[in-house]
Design a protein that fits this description.
Structural class: alpha/beta
CATH class of the largest domain: Alpha Beta
Oligomer: single chain
Radius of gyration: 20 Å
CATH architecture of the largest domain: 3-Layer(aba) Sandwich
Strand content: 15-25%
Bound molecules: pyridoxal-5'-phosphate
Number of domains: 2
Strand order of the largest sheet: 4-5-13-10-11-12
């Protein structure tokens, strides 16, 4: 299997090339040249998640050197539980946040780190990643102390929760965290600029761990495939998924699972007040803009990069509209939903997951799987301002809370970042601000 650029069907890349490059040479995103159709009827209902993963991914890995490691990659990436439960009649919840940093970003980040470990290189890799809150910690945890790899994390200062910041900055060794004076979109822009900048490109083997990297999307296809399969086998009915959406990576993965033939009835996106997708569906105009700050901060994205991948799948406006629906949820609705779900279902949910639960109320009575993207304890300031309760911290977080933190502040300019990063590497000392 080869992969193409969203902007040019003729450019062909192997999986390893896609993972190393992040973006195609023409600035497009990588997409598989086709979606292998998988006959899930052949799978045993009790198939393990790791075994299932290998079956779903094998075609994408075919003819690539990483193919030899597929079993090991899956086994080492997916080594935490994925609870799936019915909340009430017809509403199910898929908890994707039981990994080491308590958000679904652990799936993609761990898988990508496993892939990088098996890619041979002459130069040290520098992984650069912009984070709206959860990617940073997932990538730090997944790449910590990996040989031959440095990680630069850019997060928008003051715009993420305290727990998120702690999880991003409680590392040493090969992990460098920068608090950027700007928004997530500024951070994302800096990553793009570094990629286009010759002096960065020449001095380092730059790679990205953002969801533009296809090595993050492929592992996310699996949970949609697996749980739609399990659901269908059990209830003989196809479920729909409601997905909290920001940069649209997780949602793209769900559409890819559907394209591969898995029994997904429909997919609905829930966003916070950043609603460029909803606007595109309604008007046919895609107008990226500065992100607005909301309670669901990991979805504060005004220019979702994976839109380009969905646009290729549904290439005219009508087709897009017929396949993708979206709901934009306000902060007031998020608060109300967190309180309601706690009262009615005795469940604590994070602000991102709340957008999906709120959307669920606006839909029909068919079966819906709400995708829970982060553990509520990461947002305890928000939650404790709504419900008089003390969040309990799982052991993954408690362990991190004991660690010392370090980060460097930087203006949202690539030259400043280069200066600070190089200084640090040369002096081998890190200014501690926290
Ligand atoms: C990243 C994130 C999202 C949004 O996912 P995308 O793939 O960017 O659409 C939603 N919820 C949480 C908790 C996240 O960390």
């Amino acid at each position: 299997m080869y992969f193409n650029s969203t902007r040019n069907k003729k450019l062909m890349y192997t999986l390893t090339e896609c993972i190393k490059l992040g973006l195609a040479e023409d600035g497009g995103l990588f997409i598989p040249e086709y979606f292998p159709k998988i006959d899930y009827n052949n799978f045993d209902i009790n198939i393990s998640y790791v075994e299932f993963s290998k079956n779903v991914l094998k075609e994408y890995f075919k003819n690539d050197p990483l193919n030899n490691y597929l079993h090991e990659i899956c086994k080492n990436s997916f080594n935490f539980i994925i609870p799936f439960n019915e909340v009430n009649n017809g509403t199910f919840i898929l908890d994707l946040f039981q990994g080491p940093t308590l958000s679904f970003k652990d799936f993609g980040a761990r898988f990508l780190a496993q892939c990088f470990e098996h890619i041979s290189t002459e130069k040290r890799f520098t992984i650069m990643v912009a984070t709206s809150g959860d990617t940073g910690s997932a990538v730090a945890s997944a790449f910590y102390k990996k040989n031959n790899i440095d990680v630069i994390i850019l997060y928008p200062e003051g715009k993420i929760s305290q727990k998120q910041e702690h999880q991003i900055t409680c590392w040493d060794s090969n992990i460098y965290s920068f608090a950027v004076n700007g928004t997530f979109d500024d951070c994302q822009k800096m990553v793009k600029e570094a990629f286009q900048n010759d002096s960065w490109q020449n001095s380092k083997l730059l790679c990205t761990a953002n969801s533009i990297n296809i090595g993050r999307l492929l592992p996310q296809v699996i949970y949609y495939a697996y749980f739609s399969f399990k659901y269908f086998k059990k209830y003989d009915e196809m479920p729909g998924f409601i997905i909290p959406t920001g940069n649209m990576g997780n949602a793209t993965a769900a559409y890819w699972a559907k394209e591969m033939g898995f029994p997904i009835r429909e997919i609905v996106l829930s966003t916070n007040a950043n609603n460029v997708i909803l606007e595109y569906i309604e008007t046919g105009e895609f107008s990226p803009r500065k992100s607005l700050l909301t309670l669901a901060n990991a979805m504060d994205v005004g220019n979702p990069s994976n839109f380009e991948r969905l646009k290729i799948l549904f290439d005219d406006h009508l087709l897009f509209k017929n396949n993708i629906s979206a709901y934009s949820i306000t902060d007031a609705q998020i608060r109300e939903t967190i309180a309601d779900v706690f009262k009615n279902d005795q469940k604590l949910i994070c602000p991102h997951t709340a957008t999906a639960f709120c959307t669920r109320k606006l839909l029909n009575s068919l079966p819906w799987i709400v995708v829970a993207t982060a553990h509520p304890c990461k947002f305890d300031e928000v939650i404790e301002s709504i419900i008089p309760i003390k969040n309990e911290y799982p052991k993954q977080l408690l362990e991190m809370l004991y660690k010392k933190c370090r980060h460097i502040k930087v203006e949202a300019k690539i030259e400043k970042l280069a200066e600070k990063f190089n200084n640090f590497q040369n002096n081998n000392k890190f200014t501690i601000y926290l």
